Amino acid sequence: MLADSKVPFRAIVDTTPDGMLVCDARGTLVLVNTEAERMFGYDAGEMVGQSIDVLVPDQVRPRHQRLMSSYTAAPKTRLIGAMHVELHGRRKDGTEFPVEISLSPYETEQGLLVIGGVRDISERKQLEAEIKLASSHVVSAIEAVQDAFTMLDEAGIVIRANRVALALLGENAIGRSYRDVMRAAIDRGVFDARDDLFERWLAYHGDPEGSFDLQTTSGRYLRATDRRTADLGMVSTIADVTDLLRARELAEAASAAKSQFLSSMSHELRTPLNSVLGFAQLLAEDTARPLDTRQLERLGHVLRGGEHLLRLIDDVLDLSRIEDGRLSLVFEPVDVGDVIDAVARTLEPIAQRANIEISVGAIARPLPVVIVDRTRLLQILMNFGSNAIKYGRERGRVTFDVAVRGTALRVSVSDDGIGIADEQRALVFEPFQRAGQETGPIEGTGIGLTISRRLAALMRSTIDFASAIGKGSTFWIDLPILETTLEAHRVQPFRLADSPLARGPARHLVLYIEDNPSSVAFMHDLVEQLPSIALVVAPTAERGLELARSRPPSLVLMDINLPGMNGFEATAELRRDDTTRAVPVVGLSAAALADDTRRAHGAGFERYLTKPVKLVELARVLEDLLE
Questions:
Q1: Which residues have C-beta within 8 Å of that of residue 115, sequence separation ≥ 6?
Q2: For residue 315, what pLDDT is reported?
Q3: What Cα–Cα distance (Å) separates residue 88 from each residue in 39, 91, 127, 608?
Q4: Which distant-in-sequence residues (6+ apart) come within 8 Å of 334 by Cβ?
Q5: DSSP-assigned states of every residue in 559-587
Q6: Do 18 and 119 touch, CB atoms closer than 8 A?
Q7: Three-class SS of residue 173?
Q8: Quick check: 110 and 28 in contact, CB under 8 A?
Q9: Rounded to whole angstroms, how far apart are CA atoms 463 and 459?
Q10: Are 240 and 218 in contact (CB under 8 A)?
């Protein structure tokens, strides 16, 4: 040990990071270090010899004096031992600050000394205040959460819960295992536990993924969501989703009712339209008794009118399909000029009745190639053209035009009619908005432009318009151009006489199960032009099954809505019978919703065609399955 004279006592005292104050038994300062001078703002000479009270604020002086007296009392009654307290100090300039003091007694030959280590804890107190404020904000936020909110530590103990959680899980939840809390809640009958609810919840809670659904005994539906925190704790919320689920059930019921209505409406309209368009197509294709030019021209009007009516039916279905994300498109190279000509021809009778001229601008061929759904492009241009006629002026003009705009082929339809006001511009493409004509004499549903814009987006195209009141409007669609020519993609038109089925003799037996006389007559006329097919007709599914089992056909054409057993049930019977299991079945129905198609493919149909049946489509299916 070094001799006392060699220990650098003063240097050690002055280098300590805390302030040091040494008092005698009377409370007089006898020694201060450098940190104490800095802390209180006095020089050592100003403090030594002064009472310690000079460094203590008035309001805490009584407490300080009691602490000092516990050391300076009579030897038999005073408390000897270290003590740690928090007080406030007072600087020379009168400002106060929080301090932490460690008091230790030291007996000397001259008497008792009290050594005080002093630390400025201003920053710590500030941090504690900020933490306390932040904690109060967190508590306030948790209490504001409408769901039951619970925080768990790493051991799964509940460390915080809002009032909603305590009301649901029990007021004594804090400090207990969350597993025990949930088990107790289930045992009390808070939740409907008709099965192994606790075991299933425990499995979820141990490795939470997604959410866990609960139900109260009062019939409320709850959704629990547990998530791990960075410190390996957990946050658990339990939300009441009863109203949400009931609203969803109502929405689903409304959607199902809408789909049922659309399906029924479509079926009732498509069935008679199948006869109109079917016989019109057969008349146009009749090579044995061909029509003259004038008759073919009139028949063309019938076909175009029937197809327009079909498009009106499809408009309603299309909007439903688009909204549900169930619309499928067929992309192919399309001659835009041909589409414009077809639209103009179809609209010509309507324009003549309105005393409006339809003109087609000069189309410079060959046109750039666009890959789109031809039917949908025709639908869009039909909508543009019919609107131009409806909102045009008498003895006015509707003009179709085509122009290349950069990488797009713009097809536009212009009129010189009433125009659209600026304040109506934002509503033009909204459903059931008709540019201020909702209560006027002009007929329309107000969904055509809505469907057109959504169809254009599905074809990677854009639609817009320009308009001026009293001067007319121009609507256009910009179609993306391919770097090639249309001739390289041109497909030869289909002719029924060129089909391999048009060459006899009869070698294919086709069973047609259908109760509608017009549809049967149409099929008989079709088969007359396809002599390789022998047609047998059954008016009911029951009779059709008898015929199929006695003489298995090459193919069955099956209507869906039949008296007695329906087409789905009949197809299931064919698939169960070894004799007819391999016979391909093609569904023919006026039910055209996407759900109908999905159900048909899942029911064993080889193909499913919707009425009115396109002659080309039906012939191609027969070729594929028979040849």
A1: 20, 21, 22, 103, 104, 105, 106
A2: 67
A3: 12, 10, 17, 90
A4: 370, 371, 372, 374, 377
A5: ESS-SSS-HHHHHHHHHHSTTTTTS-EEE
A6: yes
A7: coil
A8: no
A9: 11
A10: no
> Is 334 within 8 Å of 370 (Cβ atoms)?
yes
SS3 298: helix
Question: What SS3 class is residue 218?
Answer: coil
Q: Report residue 228 as tokens.
A: 């791990």
CA distance 98 to 351: 93
Residues shown for the chain: 627
R_g over Cα of the chain: 45
3-state DSSP assignment of residue 619: helix
Which tokens sit at 265?
């409406």
Other beta carbons less than 10 A from residue 259's beta carbon:
17
CA distance 167 to 162: 9
Contact 528, 520 (CB under 8 A): no
Q: Max alpha carbon distance in the chain (Å)?
A: 143
* Residue 187 neighbours by CB under 8 Å, 6+ apart: none
Q: What are phi and psi of 434, to 5 degrees?
A: -130, 45
pLDDT digits (tens, 9 = 90+) for 258-303: 666 666 666 677 778 777 888 888 888 787 788 888 888 888 888 8
Label residues 549-571 b or e (16+ Cβ within 10 Å = b). eeebbbbbbbbbebeebebbebb
pLDDT, one tens digit per residue, over 440-469 is 444 445 678 888 888 888 888 999 999 989
In angstroms, the CA 470 to CA 493 distance is 43
Q: What angle do CA 349, 351, 353 make, to 5 degrees?
A: 70
Among 157-166, 208-217, 574-583, 585-594, where is mean pLDDT lowest?
Answer: 585-594
Match 């909007």 to its residue by tokens.
319
Residue with tokens 């019938």: 302
User: In the prediction, which pLDDT does 494 show?
Assistant: 60
Give the up-direction half-sphere exposure of residue 213: CA atoms within 13 A in the CB hemisphere: 6
Confidence grade of residue 483 (pLDDT, cut at 50, 70, 90): low
Environment class of residue 463 by beta-carbon count within 10 Å: exposed (0-12), middle (13-18) or buried (19+)? buried
Q: What are phi and psi of 291, to 5 degrees?
A: -80, 155
Confidence at residue 619, expressed as pLDDT on a 0 to 100 scale: 84
Let me know how many helices (H) and strands (E) the chain has, helices first: 18, 23
Half-sphere exposure of 62 (CA within 13 A, CB side): 1
pLDDT digits (tens, 9 = 90+) for 52-100: 889 989 888 888 778 777 766 655 555 556 677 888 899 999 999 999 9
**Token output for 319:** 């909007």
Nearest to 381 by CA among 328, 301, 459, 324: 459
Question: φ, ψ for residue 215 (rounded to 5)?
Answer: -140, 135
| Per-residue model confidence (pLDDT) at position 29 | 93
504: pLDDT strictly greater than 80: no
Both structure tokens of 216: 């109260």
C-beta separation of 158 from 181 below 8 A: yes
Look at residues 139, 140, 137, 152 and name the one whose alpha carbon lies nearest to residue 182: 152
Phi, then psi, of 303 in degrees rounded to 5: -60, -45
Helix axes 374-390, 336-353, angle to 10 degrees: 30
Summarize the confidence of residues 338-342 as an average pLDDT. 90
The crossing angle, in degrees rounded to 10, of helices 293-324 and 242-285 is 170
